[in-house]
Structure formats: C-alpha cells, structure tokens
Write a structure and sequence with these properties.
Blueprint: H1 12-23, E1 28-33, H2 40-55, E2 65-66, H3 69-77, E3 86-89, H4 99-115, E4 122-127, H5 135-138, E5 143-151, E6 154-165, E7 170-174, E8 177-180, E9 183-186, E10 189-192, H6 197-224, H7 232-242, H8 248-255, H9 259-271, H10 280-287
Parallel strand pairs: 1-4, 1-5, 2-3, 3-4
Antiparallel strand pairs: 5-6, 6-7, 6-10, 8-9
C-alpha cells in the first residue's frame, strides 16, 4: 500500500534524503533498477528536475545525463559543477558485463566519494538488476529505488536505504523514515509523474546522438578487426596512400625518406593487419 501525506509535495521525501547527506558534507550514490519500460530513465529525470527546482531554482541541465563513464568523468573534472549537483549515468546495463566498465565505474564512484566530498555531488545510475553491478560498486551505493509499476501515469518505486556492515561485509536494506506530525513514519514507496516535455525531448535527442555515435564506433571497430595501432610515420604513409599517392618513391620524396624505408614500413603495416589498396579513382584525379 502506498502511503500519502497531505503536507508532502512530489519529491519531498527523496529531496530530504539528498539534502541531509549534502548538509552533512557527504555525497550520494543512488541506483534505480527495474525492467525495460518500467520508468527508470524518466524517474531519474524527474528526481533531478525536482531537486534542481528546489535547490537551484532552475531546470536540470541535460548535459548532466551521461551515457558512458567517459562522459561522466568529463562532467566531474571540467570544473563547471556546483555544490549539490546531480549526474545521471544512463542505462548502466549496456556495458555492465565488461570488466573494464566495472573497474571504471568503481573508480568514478570512489573519485566522487573521496575527491568530491567537499562539493557534495550526487550520481544516479539506472540498470535492470542491482546484481549487474559488481560487489565493490554495490557497497558504495547509498539509496536503491526499484520501479514497481506505472499507476495513474506515475512511476511507483520501492525505496531502500542501503547500509554496509564493515564487520560482516554484508549490505542491508532499510526503510527510510520521515518525520510526520512529530512522529517518524517508515516509507516503502515513492511516486513520480513524468518529467517535463522539454527535458524529455532534450534527453531523447542527446541519447539519439550518443547511440548514433556508438553505432559508428562499432562499425569502425568491425572494419578494423584485430588491426594493431600504427606508428606516427605509418599513419602519414596511410594518409598519403588513402589520398591517392600510391607510388612508394613519391611517398619517400614527400616524407624525406628512402624508398626502402617506405617499403619496409608498408610491410610492417601489412603484418599489423593494415592492407593498403589502390583507389584508382583518386589516383586518376591526382594524375590528371
């Protein structure tokens, strides 16, 4: 059963938890889990939107929605974040099977907890299952929200306060408590309506750009296969070759090297998986 209190506005419960942590000079790491289409992403947006409305009296910046660890770290270290800002790491499950992703995520969270304590930064990460995070990352989390259903156009989320017992090594779930009429009341569920259309549209556009760039990267990686990186000289040779200069003597003259050096480097490039092929069309245009 979802309790409702007349004197509480949407977002007050979680805003209060976030505010108390920041007031205690702490950061907050919050996980949102649930199946696809259960409202994880939009709930994260709404949580941040309501927090920024209360804390900063301004809209939540969509640039704080990160679709990779690299984007997250870029936001953390660029010096533009204010005290009390929130960041979203979107669809954490996309790369969660990667050990490299887990290691980077753990380093990012540790960085926030240690280096950014004085700035009071919060990070929300959404993913299908909490178990998809490795143990070391899970132990760093403070709050866990689980999407239950969409009811009356509102996302219903079960809320847990996470506590790590350093002696036993176990992670415990607790129900947060709030003060109502002088008494503490346990909270099991919170609800959120959709974020504003402006924020959702900006988020979808940013997500589309990321997915498109990711597809291009995957395609390039597939084309390159197991190719090994080239040396700076070999990169120059490839650039000239791709531009239509396929005569080794001319390449040597252009680079101020001997034809033998160019020939040897082309052979080394072949062993690295880079096969130079002639583009007759470009070569003809250069010749003409």
């Amino acid at each position: 059963m979802i309790k409702e209190w007349d004197n509480l506005k949407e977002g007050d419960i979680l805003n209060g938890i976030i505010s108390r942590r920041f007031s205690s000079n702490q950061n907050i790491l919050l996980g949102v889990i649930g199946k696809t289409g259960s409202g994880k992403s939009w709930s994260c947006l709404k949580i941040c939107e309501l927090w920024y409305k209360e804390k900063f009296k301004k809209p939540f910046p969509v640039d704080n929605c990160c679709f990779s660890i690299e984007q997250l770290m870029e936001r953390l270290v660029n010096g533009k974040l204010q005290r009390g800002e929130l960041l979203i790491i979107e669809e954490g499950g996309v790369n969660l099977g990667s050990l490299d992703f887990q290691n980077k995520l753990q380093k990012a969270f540790t960085y926030v907890l240690q280096s950014f304590r004085s700035m009071n930064i919060g990070i929300l990460i959404n993913l299908p299952y909490f178990s998809m995070l490795n143990k070391n990352v899970r132990l760093l989390m403070h709050i866990l929200l689980k999407t239950i259903e969409i009811k009356n156009n509102k996302a219903v989320l079960k809320i847990h306060h996470l506590q790590y017992n350093q002696q036993t090594g176990k992670l415990y779930n607790h129900r947060p408590q709030i003060m109502i009429d002088g008494c503490y009341e346990p909270v099991d569920f919170i609800t959120y309506s959709p974020a504003s259309k402006e924020l959702i549209d900006s988020y979808e556009e940013r997500k589309h750009k990321f997915v498109k760039s990711l597809a291009v990267s995957v395609l390039e990686a597939a084309k390159n296969g197991d190719k090994k990186p080239l040396t700076p000289l070999q990169e120059k040779i490839k650039e000239l070759w791709d531009g239509g200069m396929t005569n080794q003597t001319k390449i040597a003259r252009k680079l101020g090297l001997s034809q033998q050096q160019i020939s040897e480097n082309i052979q080394f490039m072949g062993k690295k998986g880079w096969k130079l092929e002639k583009n007759d069309k470009i070569a003809k245009e250069i010749k003409d």
